Amino acid sequence: MASGEESALIWTRPEPGARRPKFTRDQIASTALAIADTEGFAAVSMRRIAGELGAGTMTLYYYVRTKDELIALMDDAIMSEVLIPADEFPAHWYDALTAVALRTWDVLMRHPWALYSLQNATAGPNAMRHFEQSLAAVAGTGLDAPGKFALLAMVDDYVHGNVLRSAEMRSAKEAAAPDEEAMEAAMRFAEQQFATGEFPHTQALFGGEDPWGVFPRLIGDLSERDRFRYGLSVLLDGVASRMGLGLPDPHMP
Fold first, then answer.
1. Of 125, 126, 149, 133, residue with least CA distance to 89
2. Is the peptide bond before 85 cis (omega within 30 degrees of 0)?
3. pLDDT at 185
4. What is the domain class of 86-175+209-247 according to CATH?
5. Buried (b) or exposed (e) across 104-137, using 16+ Cβ within 10 A?
6. C-alpha 108 chain-centroid distance
7. Of 1.20.1260.100, 1.20.140.10, 1.10.1200.10, 1.10.10.60, which CATH number belongs to 1-65?
8. What is the mean pLDDT of residues 31-51?
9. Alpha helix (H) ranges present in 118-144?
10. Range(s) for CATH 1.10.10.60 in the chain?
11. Does the keyword Acyltransferase belong to this entry (predicted)?
12. Is 107 helix (H, G, I), strand (E, B) or coil?
């Protein structure tokens, strides 16, 4: 059986002393994030991190003992980016939730892989601070504990779902365009389906237009972030109406 010291969470162990090589857990975590951001989470390994830092792989195990600990450090580093400075934290629940959601969206759009790869990470101090800020955002709503939790869950669902969808659309834009033969085959297939009469709404939407040109027209000139913010305002306006919560004055939809 492992001793208490050996089995303790990484957060309960002090950083290695000055007699060891001068690396920090923050350095290790930020290096791991940089690798994941540029090459994907699968590229992250202790060997790769050690190479980036100019250290021996075994040296890093003095700071981080397991892959789970590395994942925990990476998650907590991301959570540190989500935190809102205390002097910038809005007083009204609507503004506070908007600020938390926007900041979370901004961070996750920088690290979209994290939604899949870090979901089982052990919560660290910054994750706890983020949850505390989220609770502080809804503290003045007058809702009971289940109501507050439901509200936070709704906002989280919207944030995470929007990040996943936005990241998918971004990847699609960056991917190579289909070749002309494949596009023509897809158009012929669509026309055959339209001819059945089973897709009147889809046919009306495309109206014979090149399908690759329809979506930019439908989306308009709004940026990803502006579309997210608009949807968030609609969600929070609905929450305010449904739950009987006050809106900030003046309220900007």
1. 133
2. no
3. 85
4. mainly alpha
5. bbebbbebbbbeebbeebeebebbebbeebbeeb
6. 3
7. 1.10.10.60
8. 96
9. 125-137
10. 1-65
11. no
12. helix
pLDDT of residue 176 exceeding 70, the answer is no
How many residues are recorded in the chain? Answer: 253
Per-residue three-class SS string for 202-219: HHHHHCCCCHHHHHHHHH
Token pair for residue 11?
């957060």
Which string of DSSP letters, residue by residue, matches 58-75? HHHTTT--SHHHHHHHHH
pLDDT digits (tens, 9 = 90+) for 134-157: 999 999 999 999 999 999 999 999
CB atoms within 10 A of CB 26: 13
Model's pTM, two decimal places?
Answer: 0.85
pLDDT tens digits, 191-225: 888 889 999 998 888 766 665 566 667 777 788 89
The tokens describing 162, both together, are: 């929007």
160-168: long-range contacts at Cβ-Cβ below 8 A with a sequence spacing of 24 or more?
Answer: 160/108, 160/115, 162/105, 162/228, 162/231, 163/105, 163/108, 163/109, 163/112, 163/115, 164/112, 164/115, 166/109, 166/224, 166/228, 167/109, 167/112
Reference 72, options 117, 112, 23; nearest CA is 117
Taking Cα atoms as reference points, which of 126, 9, 26, 15 lies closest to residue 68? 9
Q: Which residues contact 237 (CB under 8 A, 6 or more apart)?
A: 247, 253
